[in-house]
């Protein structure tokens, strides 16, 4: 029985039967004891370039040599790579802070890059939520407006500007709560998270400067809180 007869017959049947005929061709070449490379070349000469790969022929040869003559594909043990948009959307709604690797593991997708590419196709981005800013009371807002008005009405005298001291400060909490990044659609922002407690133990770094003295920096000790120093 010639492999070319089976190969020519495969040109007039559907894809599923073509796959079976190709496997039959491999069985024939195995019975003729052709090498895997020669078998792949003979099938490709008739069916077309790339029809039978060397690795596929080698895999089928091993099955035939172990007396496994079944032409059905064996079930694969690897995780499926198919990814459903609805499943991905449901996973994000359940826990939007999962990384693409964690999503790939929970959805049983073989590659985390597949999940990342699909998220970008769905127009999702990974953002860190902003902290909720402090809100001024009405009295504080009026006081600030009054201070700004007085400064604007002051005469433009050099002595006024030289008396101004600029101060910048940074609060550094000894215990920092991590704000996890979340997957959100492009153009949207994650929900705001509350700021840390005002009375948590922290240190403060202050930088001040004016027209004459330049800059100066001060930092409290790490072993003491700001309330203790003040």
TrEMBL record:
GO terms for cellular component: condensed chromosome; nucleus; site of double-strand break. InterPro entries: RNaseH_sf, Transposase-MT_Hybrid, Transposase_1, WH-like_DNA-bd_sf. Gene3D superfamilies: Ribonuclease H-like superfamily/Ribonuclease H (3.30.420.10), Winged helix-like DNA-binding domain superfamily/Winged helix DNA-binding domain (1.10.10.10). One of its GO terms (molecular function) is double-stranded DNA binding. Pfam families: Transposase_1. GO terms for biological process: DNA double-strand break processing; DNA integration; double-strand break repair via nonhomologous end joining; mitotic DNA integrity checkpoint signaling; replication fork processing. This is Transposase. It comes from Rotaria socialis.
């Amino acid at each position: 029985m010639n492999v070319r007869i089976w190969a020519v017959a495969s040109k007039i049947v559907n894809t599923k039967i073509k796959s079976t005929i190709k496997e039959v061709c491999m069985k024939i070449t195995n019975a003729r004891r052709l090498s895997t490379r020669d078998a792949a070349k003979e099938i490709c000469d008739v069916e077309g370039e790339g029809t039978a790969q060397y690795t596929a022929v080698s895999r089928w040869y091993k099955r035939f040599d172990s007396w496994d003559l079944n032409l059905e594909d064996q079930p694969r043990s690897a995780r499926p790579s198919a990814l459903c948009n609805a499943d991905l959307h449901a996973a994000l709604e359940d826990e939007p802070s999962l990384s693409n690797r964690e999503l790939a593991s929970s959805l049983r997708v073989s590659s985390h890059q597949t999940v990342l590419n699909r998220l970008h196709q769905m127009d999702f981005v990974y953002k860190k939520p902003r902290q909720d800013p402090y809100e001024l009371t009405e009295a504080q807002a009026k006081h600030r407006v009054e201070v700004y008005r007085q400064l604007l009405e002051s005469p433009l005298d050099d002595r006024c500007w030289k008396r101004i001291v600029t101060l910048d400060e940074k609060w550094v909490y000894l215990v920092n709560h991590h704000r996890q990044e979340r997957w959100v659609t492009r153009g949207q922002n994650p929900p705001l998270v509350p700021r840390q407690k005002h009375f948590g133990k922290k240190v403060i770094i202050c930088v001040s400067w004016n027209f004459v003295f330049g800059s100066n920096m001060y930092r409290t000790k790490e072993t003491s809180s700001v309330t203790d120093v003040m």
